[in-house]
C-alpha cells in the first residue's frame, strides 16, 4: 500500500482503492458485501470510486489524477469551513470579552489597558499564552534575578508551529545571567527551540513583549512577585522601542558562546589593526556613524570604556 494514500484515506479505504485500480473494478454481484462496507462509502464520498450500473453493477476506481483533485477540493472546503468557524468564534469571544469587561469592578477602559497581577501561577500561564498567540514577534529580557536557580528543563520552548508561521523569538540576557549555573545550558536549549539570543552588559528588569499589543512588566526583580499586564498601545510601543535599542546594541550569542554579527566582527578586527573610524568606514562601505555605533556596542558588551581596553578584553574573551 502506498503511504501517501493514508494521508487522505483510511488504511482500509486505501487498500480497497489500490485493489480497484489494479483490477479495473469489482463486481457488486460477486462481492455483495462490498456495497455496505465503510471503506466503500468512504471512497465514493471522497471521490475515489463510483458505482457503475451499465451491464453488471461494478465498483470502479476514479482515475487517480482526478481522485486527488477531488480530495484537494474536499480538503479546501474543510479548511474554509474551519476558518469560518474560527472567525465566528473570534467574534463571539470578542462579544463575551466586552461583557466581561463591562462587569469588571474596574472601569472598562482602565481594565483593558493595565492590569496588576499577583498570582505567580497566573503570571506564568499568561506569559505562555501571550507567546502562543503571537502573530509576528515574541521579545523578552532576562536578568540574573531568579526566585530559584535556573533549571535547564525550564528553557522556554514553544510549539514548532509558532516558529513555522514566521514568529520571531528574540531574547536578550544580561551578562550576569549567563554566569549563573545552568544558565548556559538553558540558553543552548532555547536556541535549539528557535530563539535568537543576545547578551547586554546590564538590564534593569525582566520583560515579555508580544507583537505591538501586550507586555508583561515585573513588579519585583524576579518578575514573580507581581506583574503589570499592559495593553496600552502607547506604553507597549515605548517598550518595543526600548527593546529594539537594546537589541541593536547587544551582542549575539549562540548556545552560550558569544558570536559577533559579521559586520561587528569586521569592525573589531580592523580596529585592532589600528585603522581609524574613517578608514574602516571606507573599507567596509559603511558610514563612520555606523562604525562608532558598532564600537560602542562592543565596548558595552565587554564592559570597557575605551578602545585600548576593548582590544585586550576582546582577545581575553576569544573574539579574535
TrEMBL record:
This is Helix-turn-helix transcriptional regulator. The lineage of its organism: Bacteria, Bacillati, Actinomycetota, Actinomycetes, Micromonosporales. One of its GO terms (molecular function) is DNA binding. Residues 253-318 form the HTH luxR-type domain. InterPro entries: Sig_transdc_resp-reg_C-effctor, TrmB-like, Tscrpt_reg_LuxR_C, WH-like_DNA-bd_sf. Pfam families: GerE. GO terms for biological process: regulation of DNA-templated transcription. Gene3D superfamilies: Winged helix-like DNA-binding domain superfamily/Winged helix DNA-binding domain. SMART domains: HTH_LUXR. PANTHER family: HTH-TYPE TRANSCRIPTIONAL REGULATOR TRMBL2. It comes from the Bacteria. Coiled coil: none annotated.
Amino acid at each position: 500500500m502506498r503511504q501517501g494514500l493514508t494521508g487522505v484515506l483510511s488504511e482500509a479505504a486505501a487498500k480497497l482503492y489500490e485493489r480497484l485500480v489494479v483490477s479495473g473494478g469489482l463486481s457488486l454481484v460477486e462481492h455483495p458485501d462490498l456495497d455496505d462496507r465503510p471503506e466503500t462509502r468512504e471512497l465514493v464520498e471522497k471521490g475515489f470510486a463510483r458505482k457503475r450500473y451499465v451491464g453488471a453493477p461494478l465498483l470502479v476506481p476514479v482515475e487517480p489524477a482526478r481522485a486527488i483533485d477531488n480530495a484537494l477540493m474536499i480538503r479546501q472546503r474543510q479548511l474554509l469551513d474551519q476558518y469560518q468557524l474560527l472567525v465566528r468564534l473570534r467574534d463571539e469571544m470578542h462579544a463575551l470579552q466586552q461583557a466581561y469587561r463591562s462587569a469588571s469592578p474596574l472601569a472598562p477602559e482602565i481594565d483593558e489597558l493595565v492590569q496588576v497581577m499577583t498570582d505567580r501561577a497566573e503570571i506564568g500561564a499568561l506569559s505562555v499564552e501571550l507567546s502562543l498567540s503571537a502573530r509576528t514577534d515574541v521579545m523578552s529580557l532576562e536578568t540574573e534575578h531568579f526566585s530559584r536557580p535556573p533549571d535547564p528543563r525550564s528553557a522556554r520552548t514553544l510549539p514548532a508551529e509558532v516558529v513555522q508561521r514566521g514568529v520571531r523569538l528574540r531574547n536578550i540576557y544580561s551578562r550576569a545571567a549567563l554566569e549563573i549555573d545552568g544558565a548556559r545550558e538553558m540558553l543552548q536549549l532555547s536556541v535549539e527551540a528557535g530563539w535568537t539570543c543576545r547578551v547586554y552588559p546590564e538590564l534593569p528588569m525582566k520583560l515579555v513583549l508580544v507583537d505591538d499589543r501586550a507586555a508583561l512588566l515585573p513588579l519585583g526583580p524576579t518578575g514573580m512577585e507581581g506583574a503589570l499586564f499592559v495593553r496600552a498601545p502607547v506604553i507597549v510601543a515605548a517598550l518595543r522601542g526600548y527593546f529594539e535599542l537594546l537589541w541593536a546594541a547587544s551582542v549575539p550569542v549562540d548556545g552560550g558562546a558569544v558570536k559577533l554579527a559579521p559586520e561587528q566582527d569586521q569592525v573589531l578586527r580592523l580596529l585592532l589593526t589600528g585603522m581609524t573610524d574613517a578608514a574602516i568606514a571606507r573599507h567596509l562601505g559603511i558610514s563612520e556613524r555606523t562604525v562608532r555605533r558598532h564600537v560602542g556596542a562592543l565596548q558595552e558588551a565587554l564592559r570597557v570604556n575605551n578602545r585600548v581596553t576593548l582590544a585586550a578584553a576582546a582577545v581575553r574573551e576569544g573574539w579574535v
